[in-house]
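Fig. S4 source data, part A: sequence.
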Amino acid sequence: MSCDSTARALLAHEARALLTRIERLSPFALRMPMVGAAAVSPAAQTGAESLVMQGRRELSVMVRDYLAWIRGGEPLPLAAQAQRRFNLLRLRFNAIIRQFDVFASVLGQRSEHETGVWVAGLDRVAADALALPGNYFVPPPIICYLDRNYGGAIRRAYTRLPGGVMNPVAVISIPRERMIGSGIASSMAHEVGHQGAAMLQLVPSLREELRVRRRRDRHRASAWRWFERWISEIVADFWSVARLGIGSTLGLISVLSLPRPSVFRLDPMDPHPIPWLRVTASCAFGDHLYPHPQWQHLAEVWRALYPPTGVDPAALRVIAQCDQLLGDLAELLGGHRPSSLRGDALAEALRSDLLRPERLRAQLDAWRGAPRLIEAAAPCHVFAVLGQARADDKLSPEDEARALSRLLTYWALRSSLDTTGQCPPRITAGARPALI
């Protein structure tokens, strides 16, 4: 047998082996053991299944075409040419495997006892954080999972996955160490803010408005330039505060309570603001959206925890320049009117009067007087009430953890029963969250 013939036989064997591995990519619905309450939404399940199965079908056709090409036809392909084409098949196969792994790791977690149901409850929280009353866009399905990373992250819907295909589902990872406490909602709402900002095309329009402000305000141009560089993370923080109130800032403080060098670290390549500035900016956003003295007090607490002394001069200079403009930045964000909001300002689209501090406090009292009222509340509203109670020192960490465990389970079960068309459950007297 000639060298070319041996090479073609070897490649045909490899291609057939590849085909057997492709066929083992069975649907997630046949692989993932989970209780019904831990399941993802039908839209998310369909999106993930369709993505992987479509890739599987396309690659199967490509491999079979390759085998037909290498076995016959005139003239026979040269060995090097056949090898190059097989390499493309393997690259495509590896891309599909990476797509599969993205969802397999997420869905596989749903089989964990308790955790799987809690994460399903987080799906509902995330969907609520993304939904806006003005119906400015059709929100994509969202899947949440816990990861060992320190911070949250999102693989946004309608962005490219490995292999170049469009992701049909937003996938949000939350640090496992945040589970379980109200701070988890802060990370969640921030990541959701990235998806919302993309749906509304906020970053390009805000970046242009910041450029205009920089040209007009030349003596403070350096600060506006930093804001322009950080705007993708800034708008996500703004979204989080608008959806959760002071609970968002408290969660951010928990995440950013790091060693001093990290809190004052200035990295020109990092899209995040200096951590110290992120907290003071969050307080400024809250004061703009839900005016109250508590925001100034919380900012002073943060400054007491991390006094900006003995800091690298370059970082201190940026902090001094930007900190004095945070009120102006909050006004710019709140008053921003992109075409995607159809004439509404960003603050008008995001904030809710229900999240004003005095109303959150009254809501807590109402729930304690009539516990079943909590069943009708939106998840973000519940987290906002809990966050306000934490800020007012009216909720212990132990009661908070017990309440959230039961609420996340309730939301997961309600989603499951809503999907199957049954009546939503009620929180029974013996299973009521501890805060009420």
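Fig. S4 source data, part B ends here. Residues 42-71 form the longest helix (30 residues).
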